Fold these 2 entries.
Entry 1:
Amino acid sequence: MNGVGKPDKKVKTTCPFCGVGCNYDLNIKDGKLIGVTSNLTSVVNGRLTCVKGRFGTDYVHSPERLTTPLIKKNGKFVEASWEEALDLIATKFKEIKDTYGSDALAAVSSARCVNEENYIMQKFMRAVIGTNNVDHCARICHAPTVAGLAASFGSGAMTNSINEAPQCKVIFLIGGNPTEAHPVIGAKIRQALRNGATLIVADPRRIELAGKAHVWMQLRPGTDIALINGMMRIILKAGWHDQNFINSCTTDFDKMADVIEKYTPEYVEDITGVPKHLLMEAARIYATAERASIFYTLGITEHICGTDNVMSLANLAMLTGNVGKLYSGVNPMRGQNNVQGSCDMGALPNVYSGYQAVTNAAAREKFEKAWGVKLSDKVGLMMPDMFDASIAGKLKAMYVMGEDPIRSDGDAHHVRKGFEHLEFLVVQNIFMTETGKLADVILPAASFAEKDGSFTNCERRVQRVRQAIEPIGNSRPDWQIIRDLSNKMGYPMSYSHPSEIMDEMASLSPMFAGLSFERIDEKGLQWPVPDKEHPGSQYLHVDGKFACGLGVFKAIDHQPPAELPDAEYPFMLTTGRILYHYCLTTAGYSKHLTEYRPEERAMIHPDDAKRLNIADQDYITVTSRRGTVQARAWVTTDVLPGGIWMSFHYHACPTNEVTMGCGDKVTKTYEYKVCAVKVEKTVVQ
Ligand code: SF4
């Protein structure tokens, strides 16, 4: 790949890795993907890409791709025809629905799949199976963003655009490491610094941008609310708040102001460990800037108080009037390539496409009329609830598309147990996964390079995914598989191209009504795009006119993490992503990326390493109340004493065997950012 001869053709498409949504050209020779080159017409990234986009797509031709349906017989997978596999699934799904009811089935949709596949999956579960039990991996990352920003602003998405970043005067980066997780946004933040911007970073780790920040607040994990409340109290006392904005555009300010009164700089220093002079300087820089922009990601959302963390950031932006204008706002950097789109398409247990609630009678009637069925008004199960329901004997079958919950969800033991209790499991993926090993039927799916569709990036831009090669082996695009299964189950679906699915979705979803493949062809469109003439929306809540009317201040108190270090488990583990990898499926099968960084390295502070007689590169054992993993030590002052930091990218070190099985009280997003562990040097026998 990359440099293997001259391509026969180049096909512009959208990157299948992170939520930045870079566009580039897939270079094709003899029907094979041989490399990736920049396409200067790409609106989001221009010539920029990161190592994953440039070199990681070789997974498409991995010899380990699933190429034919598999049915488990006597404990072993045997090859089957599509006819046989789909017949079996249709029969079992009908049987389980008839015996136990529609809510005994559930589906996991996929942020790796195109919008049209997410729409058709939620339609299949709702219209054909008759349940709202459909969810996807937003549950384990940015569900608190969707819930929190929707509660505060009326819309759960990035308020501004990626290409505003280089023009920002002040950037407040909290709980995010774009250099590694969203590299092209990281590059644009560095561009802003070169343009004279001031950067504030709040992060327990010395991430690359902390070294470039004017103020770095190294807060203890799980203390973001105290930090933000402390900043807001300083701003209020100094009179740096925007009274006009508060008066005319928001509500419930007084309740919030009452709660933050006790967050004196001393009290905040006590909770967060951040010296009060740094807190005061950060508050001054943010509040006195003409325009200041907040960027955050999973360091904010993956806590038991993830939704409250998000709403605290919304409070800070509204207090200073830093929302509803250019180079300002609250900007969640979404993780997966299409996690924004999967939420938008209604792959969630409580909403149809366009965030129309299943409990809203008018919305339900509209979809009933369009789909010709009676729909359930009962909110479905979130993913963690699915595993509990299975263990309790209430959920009998699951259909998992393009995800591997055993590797990606918190407390892998519990998730595995949930799958083991099912009567029937269907897994649809491009590779065999840990979850797939437990399946009764495996369906081989086509990768992003083998199908048409669209992804929506974190700035709400809906962009084209274009087929560049034929599906590998006997694999099929996910939307075709669901369509064919639906037909087998007696609910006719006749889509012949994903554009028809988008047209149906647009006709039923007011905020996406102006979308079509034709309109997104060149540059994509940023939603809301309410009609066919609308040019799309660069930024939201223009002039403080929030999607919900008035912006809502929330009164929020600090909440400690669910599990804190103690005598038995004295370390605090935080997990996250590294530059060279993405997730286990896809990037995990990239030869190039694996060569760059072949194994897990757990960060540990030199003081702790010395005490435990651990040298850099030694193998260490990390154990929590839930499980044990082994990794090489990376002795570094980048983490706080008492802290351990690991990624979750390696089959040989499945970090989620250790992480917490509980999470945010609103969205149930797992608390990946804090759990108590013990660390020992691994004794080699
Ligand atoms: Fe792909 Fe994200 Fe890298 Fe862009 S920054 S090339 S979208 S992984």
Entry 2:
Amino acid sequence: INPDNFKDKKKELLRFLMGYKFALEQLKTKIELLKNEFKHIHEYNPIEHVASRVKTPESIMRKVQKKGCPLTIDSIRENIRDIAGLRITCSFESDIHVLHKMLEEHGDVDIIEEKNYINEPKGNGYRSLHLIVKVPVFMSDREEHVFVEIQIRTIAMDFWASLEHKIYYKYNKEIPDHIKQDLAATAEVAHQLDKKMEALHTEVNLIKSNHQAEEEAETIE
Ligand code: 0O2
């Protein structure tokens, strides 16, 4: 490879990835604003934490090879839609729906694809809501639109996915069936935990609003 050519290609790639970094910064600010507004109105915070990452060039190359798409910047921009990823962890499953709705109604966020692995979990037990959004990015000399993948999950879903990712997800070789079955069973345990926590949360909310109503009635008397 001609060293000058290599230097130019590297520069082009780094500039390309910079657009994704900017898109993530913008989205994180929007999510923070939504969170604060929601907290102000409902006195409740549906978001536990937000994490983001830009795929490494090696990981992008692996995906390009897997998908068999052309190795050009335009093709990568169009075909690899999770170069920038934002993961939002919520407390309860109902918070995921609240956040999803807030993003749908947000004029600035253009959701162009959804994969609902909560309504339809993957065979291995993976649960999460995936949204692909299109974000405008303003570079010094042009405006670009880049895709960002937003994954929204509960703490229990995140706990399972993080550990499953470590144990197995990217291991391409054959894994004994009993390990696959055990992982699927642990996903079900995490799901039951989510359901139980949601039920407790609903019950406590009901008790709180009954108390509030009683206190208000006493003040009027
Ligand atoms: P990493 O290392 O987390 O970035 P597509 O992107 O549409 O061509 P794909 O990759 O099947 O096809 O998309 P999908 O289903 O939306 O999944 C993308 C991401 O979701 C993955 O990114 C993981 O982060 C997560 N994910 C999906 N399935 C699983 C799973 O079974 N277990 C775990 N732990 N995570 C999962 P990457 O790039 O594969 O990995």
